[in-house]
Amino acid sequence: MNAKAEVTDACDLRFGQVGIACVRVRRVDAAALCDELERRVRAAPQMFARAAVVLDLSHLSNLPDDGAVDALLEAVRSAGMLPVGLAYGTSETEALAKRMGLPLIAKFRAAYEPAAGSTSPAEPAPRAEAAPTVQREPILSAPPSDGMHGAQHHAGSVRSGQQVYARERDLIITGAVANGAEVIADGNIHIYGSLRGRAMAGAQGDGKARIFVSDFRAELVAIAGQYRVFEQIPGDLEGQSVQCWLEGDKLLIARL
To answer: Does residue 159 share a domain with residue 225?
Structure first.
């Protein structure tokens, strides 16, 4: 009698683009951190409740001790978010992550981490800022993003739960982006349909990137880490053709 064949493949392991927010800690105050994150969750529960976040400690003058970091992580959890790791940083950060049993997320490089082959600091990790005021004076042209390849085209709609990422190029969507769907590009994003989900341009820090939408009903738009969340679209923007761009640290939106 033949023995039963042994099943050796217990799982598949794959890497892909994952939507993770970055919490940049500016002072070691667990209570204040919890209050601020709770405010964000209350303002946009569909976006931030149980959101996966990375803790960036690079803007602190000194790396906190293990107990202080544990308190910060607990503050994130208490606010309703889920910390999944620390932002990639120095050897001290790596040692801290090992002691805390957390991974280092290389996508978020700390502000003090030098770029490869350079003595200047790398671009800081994306940060979440308070929603800026909408500006209604449009700018009709989009400057090309340096170093970008030809645009990536996605024919049809992007369904809820799907993510489309255009690496080192612009992204063109010829259909709708549904609630819960996510479109990301290192360059500009053009959506020739309704945007009901999330659109994030300049994902690697390109502040010149722009977002163009034919029918604006977004959950979130972001450029180079600066974002705006919408629980309710302003009446003069809902369903309109708009563009989004950065002026300094402000994300501006205007009808076309």
So the answer is: yes
The arrangement of strands across the sheet holding 82-88 comes to: 21-24, 52-56, 82-88, 104-109
Render pLDDT for 186-207 as a digit per residue (tens, 0 to 9): 999 999 999 999 999 998 889 9
Domain coverage including residue 246:
149-255
3 state DSSP class of 126: coil
Question: Which of 3-17, 37-51, 181-195, 215-229 is predicted with the least confidence, judged by mean pLDDT?
Answer: 3-17
In-domain check, residue 134: no
> Tell me: the pLDDT tens digits for 202-241?
988 899 999 999 999 998 899 988 888 887 788 899 999 9
Strand-pairing partners, residue 191, are 173, 213
Q: DSSP letter string over 214-253?
A: EEE--SEEEETTEEEE-SS--TTTTTS-EEEEEETTEEEE
CA angle (55, 58, 60) in 5-degree steps: 100
Residue 119 lies in a domain: no
Taking the model in full, what pTM does it have? 0.59
If you ran DSSP here, which 8-state letter would residue 5 be given?
A: P
Give me 18's structure tokens. Answer: 């994952």
CATH code: domain of residue 215: 2.160.20.70
144 within a domain of the structure (yes/no): no
Determine, yes or no, domain membership for 13. no
The arithmetic mean of pLDDT across residues 56-83, rounded, is 94
The domain total for the chain is: 2
